[in-house]
């Protein structure tokens, strides 16, 4: 009977490991979509979103940004962005991949173990600007790939909170 119990326990352990690991092995990416409505004109929202001076006002854990190369806020320009992560600092290289004035901004951030691509579209509605964001997080090593699917709710919350802070900053600046 003991051998049968061991087989059952082993089967359960293997099943749990497979369920926890498979999502990260097959995907390695997390895709998150957001929609943010801001009661401000499109031009002001677009310019402010790309303003490095305003980043500390809305971006959580932001420490600093340094221009690395290229003409600022144009395709191909690169920046070194530093964030705090607990008791340590994480540095990312950010590259602007696409800028369509008042329409689209696509950015890629590369950091150890993780790449993030943010593709943002801007629309002028009747009395507000709508920002539609698509964020793709790609694990560059096995551990990150395995963890990403399980971190998706926390990542979504962090992005949503950041966009809410941006919206509040924009709407409060007009008062």
Concise structural overview:
The protein is an alpha+beta fold and 175 residues long. It is built from four helices and seven strands, in the order αβααββββββα.
Largest sheet: 7 strands, antiparallel
Query: What does the average pLDDT come to?
Result: 89
Q: What is the radius of gyration computed over CA atoms, rounded to a whole number of angstroms?
A: 20 Å
Q: What is the helix/strand order?
A: HEHHEEEEEEH
Mass-distribution shape:
elongated
Q: Which band does the percent of strand residues land in? A: 35-45%
**Helical fraction:** 25-40%
As laid out across the biggest beta sheet, the strand order is 1-7-6-5-4-3-2
* Helical segment count: 4
Low-confidence regions: none
Instruction: Note the gap between the termini.
Output: 75 Å
Structural class: alpha+beta
What is the number of beta strands? 7
Name its key features.
175 residues, alpha+beta, 7-stranded antiparallel beta sheet, 39% helix, elongated
Protein model, in words:
With 175 residues, this protein is of the alpha+beta class. Helices cover 39% and strands 39% of the residues. It is built from four helices and seven strands. The protein has a seven-stranded antiparallel beta sheet with strand order 1-7-6-5-4-3-2. A hairpin with a 2-residue loop joins strand 3 and strand 4 (88-100). The model has no long low-confidence stretch (mean pLDDT 89).
Secondary-structure topology with pairs:
Layout: H1 2-26, E1 29-38, H2 42-49, H3 55-58, E2 62-69, E3 78-85, E4 88-100, E5 104-111, E6 114-124, E7 129-139, H4 142-173
Antiparallel strand pairs: 1-7, 2-3, 3-4, 4-5, 5-6, 6-7
Helix pairs in contact: 1-4
